[in-house]
Each structure stands twice: as structure tokens, then as C-alpha cells.
Amino acid sequence: MKNDFWEASKEHCAVITGASSGIGAEFARLLGNMGCFLILSGRNEKALEKLRDELGRDNCVIIPADLSDVRSCIDLFARSRKYKPDILINNAGFGLYGEFTETSLSKELEMIDVNVKAVHILFKLFLKEFTKQNRGYILNVASTAGLLPGPLMSTYYSTKSYVIRQTQAVYEELRRRKSAVHVSVLCPGPVSTEFNARAGVEGFIKGISPRCCAAYTISKMKQNRLMIIPTVKMQLAMTAVKFAPLCLACAVSYTLQSGKKQI
Fold it and tell me: What is the per-residue pLDDT across 17-59, written as a single tens digit (0 to 9) for each?
């Protein structure tokens, strides 16, 4: 399906959070190869500088930011505006493994700040700007975790559920207004990134590559797809979850999570 927005990529500017590694870095490489000017944000300034050098200093700028801080979110938006972005990859986030009674409250609150508050703030600020122009794309990165109950990672699963439901609701608001701004939510299954290590766990299910995930996602964004779930296997699994009794979904989710090794 032809999409005129993507036909002239050199005219576009994309803001990517969580760009220092994993899926975020691959989005940067792919969109950069398409000709988009890039604004790369993340906590790891050295990793961002390395990626900027790889992509070319004339093709991107970096704005290091700790998005657990509300002021940093607002500052990222304010500093990005002068480049007139029309694509937002709202990707920053992390997880935490363990029983709810045992996990760190401070880490969980930080996770809520990054996975929910930061995503919410940037989604709202950039969407308001894009709707004034009546053009643009926003991708909120969630997870298939947001479609499941999440024993042993309950806070993480809950944060991703928030991202999914809000994106779905805003999508309908925009559709009824016949807006030319498009929003999508990415719900990948396991992806081979640093996510598990930061969550304090070793995964036992092999994930798809970050590049494969990012490339598939961009192709579906071009089709204005709301829900983006890479791989047929995960699509079938999520369809099955819809029809499974809640108690069974909880039990299966616990079994899958308990197969991981805490580090």
C-alpha cells in the first residue's frame, strides 16, 4: 500500500528514545538509511556518541536524558522542536524480575516513571504538536507482556498494558477526527537485547534480532497498523490468549517466567 508520507524520507525528522542500544539503535540505523534526520536520546551518552559517529554527525544529534525525571522529558521535547520532528519512536523502558513482595520498590517506581510517565508525557506533547501540523507518526513501544498477566514481572507487565491501552484509545480518537497523524504500538515477544540483563534475569527463550523487529515494525507503520506484533508465532500465541481462561493464562505466564534464571 502506497503511503505518501514515507515517499520522501529525507524531509523527515525522527526522535528516538532508548536509542543507545537494542531496538532503539536499530530503528536509528534503519530510519537513518531511509534518509531521516535523527534525534537520539538515552541515558548512555557514550553509546549515543558512538551511534552518532556511525550514522554521521550531519545526519543526527544526540540529547542524553534520564527520562525517569519529568523535567528531562519536557526538556527533550523542547530541544527537539527546533528540528521540526514528525516521527516519534517512544522506546525507552526497562523491566525487573522477581516476586512482588521481594522486588525493590524504588526500582519499580523508577520503572513506572520511565515506562509509563515518560511515555505518556512524550506521547502527549509530540501528539499535540503533530496534530497542529496534521501529519506525523508515533510508535509507542510496549510488549506482548502488556497483553498477559505477569507473575514474577508484575510491574513491568502492568506498565506495558498501560501503553497498549492508551495507544489504542488515542488511535480511535484520531480516527474519528480523520486525522493524518498515525499512532501505533509495538508488542514484540522476546528480542535479543540487553533487556534481560538489566531486568536481572537470563532468558531461556531465544528472541528475534533487534534489526528484524525494527524492520518489521517500520513496514507495518507504513501501513498505518495500530497493533504491531512481530512473528507469526507470537501473533498466534496472543490470539490464543484472548480465548484462554484467565486462570490458565496466569498459570502459563508464571511457568514461562519461572523458567528464567535470576542473576
Answer: 999 999 999 999 999 999 999 999 999 999 999 999 999 999 9
Task: Report strand pairing: 87-90 vs 136-141.
Answer: parallel
> Which range (25-29, 47-51, 98-102, 230-234) has the least confidence?
230-234
**H or E element in which residue 37 lies:** strand 37-40
> What per-residue string of b and e applies to 74-95 under the rule 16 or more CB within 10 Å gives b?
eebbeebeeeebbbbbbbbbbb
SS3 of 118, please? helix
In contact, 145 and 252? CB cutoff 8 Å: no
> Using CA atoms, how far apart are residues 117 and 26, in angstroms rounded to an integer?
24
Q: For the whole model, what pTM was predicted? A: 0.91
Look up residue 208 and give its DSSP letter. Answer: B
Nearest CA to 225 out of 143, 173, 167 is that of 167
Residue 112: CB atoms within 10 A of its CB come to 17
Cα–Cα distance, 111 to 159 (Å, whole number): 8
